[in-house]
């Protein structure tokens, strides 16, 4: 999928890819720490949300605080609800529950579904259809998550041979 955008490669795209890799690394750290500390998903979400608020809010207000006054209150409310409740609390609680059920490695595999699901959600939300390469990526990512989360593989059963010929008839006693 990256190869299809080779001509559009630039420094900001490289920074974005590095940030994506760092986010994956930090999510893996969070998953392992949560699993080892045996944290309840709700407590883990509370710790992450509170920590993020304490670290991010002063920095944001120091750099961009005056711009917030210019944004319509309805837009701020939607973002506060979505980012503050749905993403920060609901998603973390559900993720913590998945890790508790499937284990750290199986649960963390579901993070890989984000790009695939984003591509699929783009179809009804913005009318953007994935191309052939994107579909291949969606299928490969989905299969990888299925296998990494412990999904069973199909079992091939060999039929026992009764006779050497495919249409063998049993002899009748008449």
Key phrases:
single chain; 174 residues; mainly alpha; 6 helices; 0% strand; disordered C terminus
What does this structure look like?
With 174 residues, this protein is mainly alpha-helical. Among the domains are: 11-68; 102-151. Helix content is 70%, strand content 0%. The chain has helices at residues 11-37, 41-68, 73-102, 104-108, 113-126, 132-148. The protein is globular, with a radius of gyration of 25 Å.
* Number of strand elements: 0
The gross shape turns out to be globular
Number of helices: 6
Q: What's the alpha carbon Rg, rounded to whole Å?
A: 25 Å
Which residue ranges are poorly predicted, with pLDDT under 50 across at least 5 consecutive positions? 168-174
Q: Please outline the major beta sheet.
A: none
Q: Supply the helix-strand structural class.
A: mainly alpha
Sketch the topology as an H/E string, one letter per element.
HHHHHH
Round the mean pLDDT to the nearest integer and report it: 80
- Rounded to the nearest angstrom, the distance between the terminal CA atoms is 70 Å
């Amino acid at each position: 999928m990256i190869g299809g955008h080779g001509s559009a490669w630039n420094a900001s795209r490289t920074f974005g890819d590095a940030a994506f890799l760092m986010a994956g690394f930090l999510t893996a750290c969070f998953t392992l720490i949560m699993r080892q500390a045996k944290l309840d998903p709700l407590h883990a979400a509370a710790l992450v949300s509170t920590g993020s608020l304490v670290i991010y809010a002063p920095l944001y207000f120091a750099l961009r605080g005056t711009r917030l006054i210019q944004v319509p209150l309805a837009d701020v409310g939607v973002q506060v609800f979505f980012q503050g409740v749905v993403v920060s609390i609901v998603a973390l609680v559900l993720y913590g529950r998945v890790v508790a059920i499937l284990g750290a490695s199986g649960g963390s595999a579901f993070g890989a579904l984000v790009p695939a699901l984003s591509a699929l959600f783009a179809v009804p939300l913005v009318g953007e259809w994935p191309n052939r390469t994107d579909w291949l990526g969606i299928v490969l990512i989905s299969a990888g998550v299925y296998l990494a989360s412990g999904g069973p593989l199909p079992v091939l059963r060999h039929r026992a041979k009764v006779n050497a010929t495919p249409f063998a008839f049993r002899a009748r006693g008449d």
